[in-house]
Amino acid sequence: MSRYPVTWRFLDALEAVAAFLWPRRMHRYTGVLLLVPAVALVGLLVAGLFQMGDSSLRLLDTETFEQSEDYSLANYRDLIEKPTYFTVLWRSTWAAALVTVLTLLLGFPYAYAMVRTRSAWRRKALLVSLFLPFFIGQVVRAYGWLVVLGKTGLVNTLLGTLGLGPFKMIYTFPSLVFGLVQYMLPFAVLLLAPAITAIDEELESASESLGAGGWRTLWHVVLPLARPGLVASAVVVFTLTLTDYAMPVVLGGGTNDFIANAVYDAFFRISDNGLGSALALTLVVFGSTVVAVMLGLLGAGTLGMRGRGNAR
Amino acid sequence: MDKRRPFDRRDFLLGSAAAAATLPFGGLAFAAAPAKPKELVVRVWGGEWKDAIDPGASKSFTANTGIAIRYDETEDNELQPKLWAAIKQKRRPPVHVNWDTTTNATKSALRNMGEDLSDLSNLGGLLPVAKPLGFDKWPLVNVYSYVYVLAYSQTAFPNGAPDSWSVMLDPKYKGRIALYNDGIGFHPAAQVAGGGKVADIPKNMKACWDFIGKLKAQKPLLGEDPDFTNWFQKGEIDLACTIVTNARGAKKNGVKVAWTVPKEGAKMDTDALWVPKGLPANEVYWAKQYVNHALSKEAQQVWCDGLGLPGVNPNITPPADMVGDPAYPTKDEDFKRLIRVPNKIQVENEKEWFGRFKQIMQG
Known about the structure:
The complex is a heterodimer.
Chain A: H1 6-21, H2 30-56, E1 60-61, E2 66-67, H3 74-81, H4 83-116, H5 120-131, H6 138-149, H7 154-161, H8 173-197, H9 201-209, H10 214-225, H11 227-242, H12 246-251, H13 259-269, H14 273-298
Antiparallel strand pairs in A: 1-2
Helix pairs in contact in A: 2-14, 3-14, 4-5, 4-8, 4-11, 8-11, 9-10, 11-14, 13-14
Chain B: H1 9-21, E1 39-43, H2 48-65, E2 68-72, H3 76-88, E3 97-101, H4 102-110, E4 141-153, E5 177-180, H5 187-193, H6 206-216, E6 221-223, H7 225-233, E7 239-243, H8 244-252, E8 257-260, E9 266-274, H9 281-294, H10 297-307, H11 332-336, E10 338-339, H12 343-362
Parallel strand pairs in B: 1-2, 1-3, 5-6, 5-7, 9-10
Antiparallel strand pairs in B: 3-9, 4-7, 4-8, 4-9
């Protein structure tokens, strides 16, 4: 009986199959092969965008509730002429900017503490606190805030014992921003942590040994070196907030819609696929433009991506 | 199944025996019934709504036919494009029977998405409100009426019901009023409360939009059916324009809420059942029989009792708690205070009205 382990024989068989399917002369194209699934998936999404583009140029016929055969720009004209859509887009953008700034302000110290702490126990506690909300999901968390901040919720009950309130703390724009910041914080911290980890601690020590205080070291040494993480966090938090649907539904009280809510309404409330597609494409173009501007101003190199010659 | 084949003595004997055994169904031709599916999928709204149709129509249907009923609680607005896409692509639709708003069902009917229900035996003798307006045949059948009442917290109104929709403009209730998030059910009331006329709908709705504009300053909450119950329960609101079933459900759950039809009137509308095209022939037959059964006196009595709504079968009686309630109209004077907007007008103007409402509320 062969002393060759079963697992080794299995792997040898797999290699033989791979060699048959992908002979040696094709090995220089292995990278392309590995990209094919991702490109196919992106291709499907792009195909979907083209279909939405076609739909966005067709009007809804309210006699038959079918889309028109002819093309027109009427849906896009609606987006420009009707103030609702500008209001909603502006609100989404403003909220995204606000949430990004607040999340970075809160997320950076958290990530720094998590990375730099000497105590393994403290690091684990910070990590667990960060990840726990991930297991709960956005909608459940939003409803949790309704319970905590509602008129008969925990906060108003505690304030009531001091003879204060009750105060209206939900179904407002501030409560929506609050909920979004709480949701986006883990994303920001997870993107900041590797950037801070990559900063050699000795650089901070060197700065302090040369007389710079903590704040100067932070401003002149840590923050510039953490820039890739800051930019990555900003891009991710901004785009996730801009396109959010659930938080405005739960915490917005119906009067603080984001652009994603308007897209939903167009598709599902008034059955106008053309208008919904126009809104969705506008969101894609707008979001992509903002990200492109951000990366253009800050440079894609800030994400750790550089051209040839910089491979490590 | 060919219902027009020649009728002979054998059919008579079989049919009589079948009819005697299935009296509650009043009209199913079991003798020539096609193969039964294991189950029928019925789209329903959750909560009180599902709890009402289950004992009303579904359990008795299952008891008599052996066909199980499974519920699909996908929102009506979200199921609609899925149904349309499936039918257009000649795929099997996800449900056998769609319990839908008449407005939505009308949109589907305009796209020729539904089976013709004209041959249902229980259609004869129903109230006129059962027939969909604007269609020669029956692509859908209305199953009950409901009223968008002014629901109010009895804690906030210890002296009884407010008499006018204008109470929503009282600064005392700023931030404590609620509407449906698409404005549904409120337009006719707002039109009259704003000093306009029902007859001007849809040509001139300035009064409606002016009233809603004033309401915007009151910072209303906008939501769906379950939100109203939740908000009343948590003390977040004192007033709401909502379907009476929701207010009744909240009251049954111990919430101190009541409702009224104010002096300006309230909108009355209907819900419907329809069977989407694209199902196998035998399943179409049994789906239609489910609809037929839902129109019977026995099914309607229990179903509509659960909802607290007046059915389309004239032989049912109101539940005890709804006797004399203006939101359960039975007499002419009850109907005088209720405003009915033809579904065709609602469908044609839905996008415009929705857009105006959103423009006001999102601004």
